[in-house]
Specification:
By secondary structure, the protein is an all-alpha fold. 88% of the residues lie in helices and 0% in strands. Helix 2 packs antiparallel against helix 3, helix 2 runs antiparallel to helix 7 and helix 3 (174-214) packs across helix 6 (252-266).
Length: 361
């Protein structure tokens, strides 16, 4: 090209090429400079956006930390309240235990009263049965003695009348008839004496049985209280007449002694009537005691059933309350355990932002 164009033209052409290259380089430089400014601008925007995201994340982390601390404190307060509740439950259980012991003591006392009432009822029934048996035996023996006495009296009267008729018909045999009459009368008097002895033994037996029934504590003596439990009305004079030595107790000797005196002063018939009235009064009082003890036993059974029902209700209520508090405590423990995994974690930068930063770099 130099040989054909000449050196001057070649220099101009080279200069033009260099100028064009410089211009192109300048354009490229301007273009790259603009691209760098744009990249710097985008980088600044990305940095600003990242700083905002980081600040937002830090604020969110602080908020979560505060919430976690608040929840932790709340759970600690709940745990403390649960512990206090457990203490209250323990105290309530102790109080309930005391109440239950008191109820058990009351139930035991009611059972004791029920057993005592049952024993008294059995004793009253036994006494009543003995009285009925003694009364039946006495009535039977009284009827026998009355019939035998009437028979012997009738026979004696018949013999006496027969002998009187024989004596009137024949004065010769007067002495022999009187002797025969005397023998018959002696025989009959002997039989009457035996009947009287038997009647006295039977009377003593009745009085002894009555004494034993009145002597409820089996001390060998009847107190005024024991007699008051059996007979109604004022018995002070009657008891004073029985208690001859004034020791506050009527012995069997004093008891039988007074009735013997009364029998001698009143006569056998009135004495039997008086003893019969005492036995009837004893039967009536025993019947009243039997009815009373039966009612007391029924009342004691009712109170025992009510006490058992109340104790069962208390136990069920306490068990339900204990189960509720246990469930609450378990729930609080579970919440406290879950709160340990709720620590704030930094959030990752958005993928679009990291991609743009890598592209601008």
């Amino acid at each position: 090209m130099v040989q054909g164009m000449g050196e001057a033209k070649a220099q101009v052409f080279i200069q033009k090429l260099e100028d064009a290259e410089v211009g192109k380089s300048r354009e490229l430089l301007i273009k790259h400079t603009a691209n760098a400014a744009d990249a710097q601008q985008r980088l600044a925007e990305a940095n600003a956006e990242a700083d905002a995201k980081i600040a937002e994340q830090q604020a969110e982390s602080e908020r979560l930390s505060l919430e976690a601390e608040g929840l932790k404190k709340q759970l600690e307060d709940q745990m403390a309240a649960s512990a206090a509740g457990s203490q209250e439950v323990a105290q309530a259980q102790a109080v309930f235990g005391q109440q239950l012991e008191a109820k058990e003591a009351e139930v035991a006392e009611l059972r004791s009263q029920l057993e005592a009432a049952a024993t008294q009822s059995e004793q009253a029934q036994t006494s009543l049965q003995q009285l009925h048996e003694a009364k039946a035996e006495a009535d039977e023996k009284r009827e026998y003695l009355t019939a035998e006495t009437e028979r012997l009296s009738s026979e004696a009267e018949g013999l006496k009348k027969q002998l009187e008729e024989q004596m009137a018909a024949s004065a010769v045999g007067n002495e022999q008839a009187q002797a025969a009459l005397s023998e018959v009368l002696e025989a009959k008097n002997g039989e009457l004496a035996e009947l009287k002895e038997f009647s006295d033994k039977q009377r003593k037996h009745r009085l002894t049985l009555m004494f034993n029934r009145l002597d409820r504590d089996e001390t060998g003596g009847i107190s005024k209280e024991e007699m008051t439990e059996t007979f109604t009305g004022d018995i002070s004079k009657f008891f004073s007449a029985l208690d001859t030595n004034a020791d506050g107790k009527v012995s069997i000797e004093e008891w039988l002694g007074l009735f013997n005196k009364m029998g001698q002063g009143m006569g056998e018939a009135k004495d039997q009537v008086f003893i019969q009235k005492l036995e009837d009064a004893e039967v009536g009082k025993s019947r009243e005691l039997l009815i009373k003890h039966t009612a007391n036993a029924a009342d004691a059974q009712q109170r025992l059933a009510e006490a058992n029902a109340e104790a069962d209700a208390k136990i069920a209520e306490q068990q339900a309350e204990s189960e509720r508090l246990i469930l609450e405590a378990e729930g609080l423990k579970k919440q406290l355990h879950c709160s340990s995994f709720m620590k704030p974690r930094p959030r990752l930068m958005p993928r679009s932002l990291s991609s743009r930063l890598r592209a601008s770099g």
